[in-house]
Every structure is written in C-alpha cells, then in structure tokens.
Amino acid sequence: LSLTPVILGRLSPRPGRPRNIRLTLMLHPLLVFLLLFVGVPLVELYLMIEVGARIGALSTVLLVVLTAVIGGLLVRAQGFAVVLRVREMLERDEMPAVALLEGAVLLIVGALLLLPGFVTDALGFLLLIPPVRHRLVLYWLESRDWIVQVSSKDSDGTRPTGQRLIDGECSRED
Fold it and tell me: What are the pLDDT digits (tens) for 116-131?
C-alpha cells in the first residue's frame, strides 16, 4: 500500500487561457477514508473530553446539543433563502447553477452541524456565512475549469467588465 500522492498536470490549456501546468493532488482513497471516519471522530472526542474537563460533562453535552439546534435553525433559514433566490433566477431565465451548489453546500453544513463535536460545528458555522460559502463554490467551479473569467466592453467600448460563464452544452427540445 503506497500513500504517496499522485501529481497530475494539465499540459494542454483551453484556448485563450495562459499556458501553465496546474498541479492537482490526489490522495489515496483509503487515506481519505481513515481521515474522515477515524481521524475526525478522534479529534472530536479528544476536544469533548478536554472541554468536559474544564466546564463539566453536562455543560459540554448541552453545548453540543445547543450548537446542533441553533445550526439546524440557521441552515433551515438559509436554505429557504437559497430556494427563493433559485426561484427568482429561474423566473428571470437565468441559470441558478451557483445558487444550487450553495444549496448543496448547505446540505453538507447541516450534516456537519448535526454531528456531535466542536470541529465540525466550527466548520459548519463558518460555511453558514454566505460570502464564505459563495467563494468556496466559485473556487471549486474555477478549479475544475467550469467557470471561465471573460471580459467584455461596455456599450461605449471603454470600460471592461468581468462576467462569469459556466461552460456547458444544452439542447432545446420543443
């Protein structure tokens, strides 16, 4: 069993993009499995024992339950906001891809906040901040070349403005 990461490079850039080699780190699936299902619970358990030693066991349990309840309420409220934003974008005939991915991140956040522990709660509450969640989704899309930054000129032809395009194919069936 080799735990050496595999490094892949993109040698042929997309047309119009700078020619550089982008390196991607791919970890062995067993290592990822061990980190997620063994490492994270061990860290959470250690932190709960430490917090329990300082503020008491009952207070620690109540704190974990309180963060789960507050987190659940916040995820619910932000989930409704994302659904409304998706609906508004669809009514304007816009593609709500980023908003839908933010909704998917909210599902993951909900799972993180329901898991008992302080590290998962901290990560969940961090991702509840809309600008952080938005930047994470954009970073994820851009790292996979699914969003390409383009510039255009205004009607007067002087000031360039940035737009985000999501590369894809579509067909219309009437």
Answer: 999 999 999 999 999 9
Are the C-beta atoms of 63 and 52 separated by less than 8 Å?
no
Q: How far is CA 94 from CA 86, 123, 148, 164, in A?
A: 9, 31, 17, 13
Q: E strand or H helix at 9, and its extent? A: strand 6-9
The residue type found at 105 is V
Phi, psi of 5 (to 5 degrees): -70, 150
Scanning the structure block, which residue is given the tokens 């709660």? 121
Which pair of tokens denotes residue 162? Answer: 């940035």
Which two structure tokens, joined as six digits, stand for 82? 């994302």
DSSP assignments along 13-36, one per residue: PPTTS---PPEEEE--HHHHHHII
Q: Is residue 25 pLDDT above 80, yes or no?
A: no
Looking at this protein, which amino acid is placed at residue 111? Answer: A
- pLDDT digits over 135-163, tens only? 999 988 888 777 645 444 445 554 445 55
